[in-house]
């Protein structure tokens, strides 16, 4: 006797969709930001002004906000 489920054909055709949690979405977003900022880092021998010009806008905003908090 075969053990057949009435929904076997439906199960075979149904794609499994993984729901992305907010934590996972944040991790992906953080990784992308880190890649952008790390690719923009220039040699330490250059001045800070030159480094800021080379970095993407997101990195510049983070740096400015840190400078405001420190100052």
Automatic annotation (TrEMBL):
Polar residues bias (residue ranges): 57-71
The UniProt annotation puts the region (Disordered) at: 48-71
Top-level division of the source organism's lineage? Eukaryota
Question: What is the recorded name of this protein?
Answer: 3'5'-cyclic nucleotide phosphodiesterase family protein
Phylogenetic classification of the source organism: Eukaryota, Viridiplantae, Streptophyta, Embryophyta, Tracheophyta
């Amino acid at each position: 006797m075969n053990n057949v489920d009435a929904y076997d054909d439906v199960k075979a055709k149904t794609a499994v969709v993984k729901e992305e949690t907010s934590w996972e979405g944040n991790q992906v977003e953080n990784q992308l930001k880190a890649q952008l900022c790390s690719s923009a880092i220039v040699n330490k021998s250059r001045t800070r002004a030159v480094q800021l010009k080379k970095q993407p806008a997101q990195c510049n905003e983070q740096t400015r906000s840190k400078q405001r908090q420190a100052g």
